[in-house]
Structures
1.
Amino acid sequence: MTKGTVSAPGKGHLRDLRRALVGFLTSHMVTIMFVALSLAALYISGMNSLLYLTDIIARISRNAFLVLSLIIPVVAGMGLNFSIVLGAMAAQALIIFVTHWGVTGFAGILLCAVLVTPLAALLGYLTGHLFNRTKGQEMITGLILGYFAAGWYQFIFLQLVGGIIPMNNPILVLSSGVGIRTTVDLTGGLKYGLDNVYRLRLPEMLIIVGVVGLLYQAYQLFRSSGDRRLTRSRLLSVALPVAVAVAGLLLLTSGSPLRNVRIPVATWLAIGGLCLLIHFLFKTKLGQDLRSVGQDRHVAQVSGIPVDQVRITAIVLSTVLAAWGHIIFLQNMGAFSTYGSYEQVGMYAIAAILIGGATVTKATIGQALLGVFLFHTLFIVAPAAGRELFGDAQVGEYFRVFVAYGVIGVTLAMHAWKSLLQRRQRRELEE
Amino acid sequence: MAKRMRELVRDLGVPRLIILGFFLILCLMALVLGLDVAGLMSSSLVRIGMNGVLVLAMLPAIACGIGPNFGVSLGILCGLVGALVAMEWQLSGFANFFTAILLSLPLATVVGYAYGWLLNRVKGSEMMLATFVGFSMVSVMKIAWLVVPFKSPEAAWPIGRGVRVTISLANREVAQLLNDFWAFEIGGVTIPTGLLLFFLACCLLMWLFMRTKTGIAMYTAGDNPRFAEAAGINVDKNRIVGTVVSTMLGGVGILVYAQSFGFLQLYEGPMFMPFIAVAAILIGGASIKRASIAHVLIGTFLFQGILVVAMPVANAFTVDMSSMAEISRIIIQNGIILYALTQTGGERT
């Protein structure tokens, strides 16, 4: 940095501050804009907090797994993986067959998850090969691949099932005997197969999370035997779980209807488990390879990492996770449109992770979770806000669709703009 | 002979041969099934003229180096705005059609300029950005269509604000305006003379433009940016020129399309239209970096030909096969784009 040498100390300090502020704003622009937008929409809509909270919990537990499945390819430098749509299609295919076989509840979900794995892995493997032939253009390839695969999906489920692939099921198959109906109802079958394994009320959940957090902190303190001084960060890490637990207790004793909001524990455990899995994956050899390939393909190649194979692995993992994520999504929805549900999966998941602050080259678990929360907040309140503002809920509905596309466009443009700024800065430094 | 065959396969590419084979098989089946061949040829000609200008819009984009214009929906939106204003002014017939074109051109110039400026900032990922700029603008305009204060009875909803989802052009004597102009019949085949003439005139203008000084500079900027820079050509400026021309053609293209179709399609309508145009020029033999007028003509003919012939052939089998035409369109359209991406899209490690 050259700044110190050219200006007085006071001025330099101010400039540092300004630069830090500008840096923070530019790197968190999308998230900041979104928080403001969501708050404004929430305020305008005048929505009831109970309704909102019930809805947002349902939506987070429905969608978080899918959004988390995007992280690995981003780290591997392949950008936002639009081809998770293929995983979603595989999941839908298996759900249709498992519903046909009549396996219900948690057993059905498990069967789906097990059987979808090889199928999604195969699709991911093929996608990975395709991406290796279109390096640098993975995102547009993934997007088009999604549309291409949709053609084959429609071919299989409209033309082959009931004909070449026998299926005798008047509920699922069209009256002509060939082709699956446009909507598949999972009620009495896989609906809530995972969610209903175990449900806890919100205050109880908060207390348990608080206690577990406290125990974990105690274990950490016990392990770091040498230094037992009370630092500020240590105090904070104890205060947080205590606060959560106390909030839970307060909620339990209060008469608020919020205390009856129920949490689908098994689904949240699956999401938490995936977070841990991703966290530890990046500490393994494979995780390090993924990172190196993401940072610089050429350097990674020279240092002996099989770049192409690592990239294929990233896409296989992402596709399989997306398939599982879509099963979680659909068991919560309870019904799906056979030829439509997969279409928006990629777009919305990607918009969500970007809103959380992820970029084309960087994505974390926190960003994914924050993004799901913010994106779905807007999704819940936008129609109501549109009705209040324009007297037309349709405006709000179109607006949230625009937001999904717009946020992806803005992020892609900003990514390119930022690398241009970096290039310019580097040139300034050289001069 | 075998060597020449292999060269042919290499030049055309396997997917293009499959598509060509598919088309020939469809034609053969149409003959065997005793379908109305003259009718099929008539509708093929209409579909070619109808889509041709939109496909032509891809040419300046590819030539100037931004690649196939996945964001041509911006131009389409400009054309739709022009058509709505012309309708609001109570114009009919050719006055309506050409007013719509004249209104959409300056609009498309401004939009295309801004869009080209943006694409210059994202070199290397233009296709992706173009797609999302297109998607976003179509969504913005969906909101706009709900609130715009147009009053003409064909366009506006009878109650409330906003414009209809599909707007009939028949009352304004715009529907099939070009198609019926000087149309005549040979052996049962109707030739939509006006439509084909308009399309060919656009192609001719494009051909002439590519031979002007600007056109050559634009082509050089797209073909070899470094060489162009060294030769004193402003690459960024020429990319904007190409983008503007492409956007303008998009506007004209949708007006030609709409007059033949008989309706303006708003809201979701323009969303996926760019993909059809991109696929058509790629089927014609263009790549992401290289295209010519011949590619436009061949591609439009092949792709639209398949779409026209596939429907009745599929229907001839069973009722259940009716969705087969649409499915084959999706597979062909996206398959050829994927193929083109694998050919020139990637950088090698």
2.
Amino acid sequence: MTAKNARHHRMHRRSALAAIALIATLPALASAQSAGAPIVQVKAKGSVEQVLGQIKKMVASNGMMVMGELHQGKVIGMTGLKVESETIFVGNPTVGKQLFGANPGVGIAVPVRINVFQDASGGTVVSYVPPSVLLKAFNDSKIDKVAGMLDGKLQKMFGMLGGM
Amino acid sequence: MNRISLKELVLSGVALAAAAISPNLFWIAQAGYAKLSTLAVWVLIPSIVVVFAVLWIAGKSGERRLVNRMIAGGLAGGLATIALEVVRITGFHLGQMPGSMPELAGVLLLNRFMLGPSLLSNIAGWSYHFSNGITFGMIYAVIFGRKPLWVALGYGLFMAAGFLVSPAVTALGIGFMGHQMPGMPVTVVLAHLGYATVLWALVRRWVDEPEWILGRRDGHRAATR
């Protein structure tokens, strides 16, 4: 290895280390790329059950309601696999009326699905796909406006959660 | 002239506390503290049993004033809810309400939000709605007796304000006190004023003694009416 190559190698290693350090210090609110759809993931303090309880209260105070729950951990537990995963569906009648009024096909994206799970390191993670991403396909400015508002509500809500 | 007896005061307190439970469960559930279906089983049904138990004990122990007020207030509250509904349904059809509250309560009570309303959930929701009207009527009659109309209207405004500031309204996505849908608070206030007016008129007719709960009562008149 020449001196020039060795210098380049050291620089690459430093850049890689810097990138790793940057990723490690990213704020709690982060976007991950998965199968082409950005998933917002927020690390939260507490068990899945505690975080879920906290989210339910935050949902109400942010002008939405929990419309349904899916206890995925329990369901998948029937296969013998032990995971902690809970999904809730949130929305409100006003937003629902606006979106479904604009296009009855929005049911594919609303109510908003929020997943709370325990990751491999034992931490609790809250994740969702921003409604604007799912609703963009409708190419409707009215829908985009409501979706943007929903994005904002979720971002505000889970920003608070990340700061817990 | 007799003051309220200790027994009547205690029974009234228990009746008021039990009657106040039902209307508060909706907002507690909407605030995310517990499911309405769970609260219905563990809190709502026991509270109704307590109301009936107080009525029975009061009847057995000769507390005629309390029995009269609970029954008169309950009946008046149930009928006054019809007046409230006339205003609320009109507001709903004029697009001034975000949704049908009794239907929403029904799906929450039977834990079937994702399935939507059914005949049974609608029956449950409307029953809950009317039970709130009945218990609010009981509370009014037990505390205030035959007070003037302005007291009843104040009571109606208090009910409306209590609902509007509750998380139940915020959760509907129309902002604090429904300020993003101005027709909604107007409908709610008018509906509760309608309720209060009918409640006042019927309580005035059916409650034997005019005094409020801590007022003096005429024992002789109470016994002979």
